[in-house]
Amino acid sequence: MDLKQIEIVGRHPGPRLLILAGVHGDEYEPIAAVRRLADQIDREDLNGSVTLVPIANQPAYRRHSRIGADKLDLARTFPGSPNGTPTEQIAHAITKLIQQSDLMIDLHTGGLAMEISPLVGYMLVSDPATLQKQRQMATAFGLPIVWGTSAKLEGRSLSAARDANVPTIYAEWGGGGGCQADGVAAYTTGCLQVMADCKMTSAPTAAAPADRCVIEDDRDTSGHLQLNYPAPHGGFYEPTLALDTDVRPGDELGRLFDPFTSQATSIRSTQTGRLITRRVLPPVEAGDCLAVILEDPAETGANNE
Ligand SMILES: [Zn+2]
């Protein structure tokens, strides 16, 4: 498996940081941000090394698609297999990179189908030092939502990092097609701020955004963005509410139309929280995720602890 990567080795010793983009082939801001990082990181002022993977999932990228022709979602295929399908081989190659790293950042967006509020997340792993490092990296990244979620999810780059005990964060920003300059800038700055915070560069560490929202939710499926509000049937979806709207049970999130009869099914919230993901690609099949609502388990009393 030829996993193309850019290796920047600093003048001074320090941690090995791995930054992944393009795990999903239709998420473009991360790919653009990694190119800027390759230009901006200065070897002379770098402690340790940075490995950039600009397009982790090249088969999916070439299809303008989240997934490759083998229909496997790379972010559900870790640790992969050296002799499996192309997606399984990519997962295996990235797992080996993760095992050789000291820190990881995995950059995503909502892709063509979804829009996601800018957020940075991590798994609530059992190792206290690793968890603390992840909290610190997430804070340094500088996005408005910080979301710690279940360590029990499998198949992710985060699962491979958990098993190798490599402190790791992931980020989400926007989506819905195209490559927005704001997202590219936020991701470039976020990675540089994590590097500064980890003393990999001499840049000053930035202050956390004043109005940021920090939620840690250890329920088993927390952080699984595809399980929420599955479409009850196929149709043409039109979201009602904007991202970041505060919602309550009963609020209409969107309508699923039969495009030929205009008959509509109203998709309503069953939760209290903030709308952080919404479907923006209208054609929908039964079971497709239509929305994600960020609940605060401290308010709902739903935490496992
Ligand atoms: Zn993704």
Automatic annotation (TrEMBL):
Gene3D superfamilies found in the cross-reference section: Zn peptidases
Protein name, UniProt field: Aspartoacylase
Keyword terms of this UniProt record: Hydrolase, Metal-binding, Zinc
Cross-referenced InterPro entries: AstE_AspA_cat, N-alpha-Ac-DABA-like, N-alpha-Ac-DABA_deacetylase
An MF annotation (GO) of this entry: hydrolase activity, acting on ester bonds
Cofactor(s) in the UniProt record: Zn(2+)
PANTHER family named in the record: BLL3975 PROTEIN (PTHR37326:SF1)
Pfam families: AstE_AspA_cat (PF24827)
Domain Succinylglutamate desuccinylase/Aspartoacylase catalytic: from-to ranges: 13-195
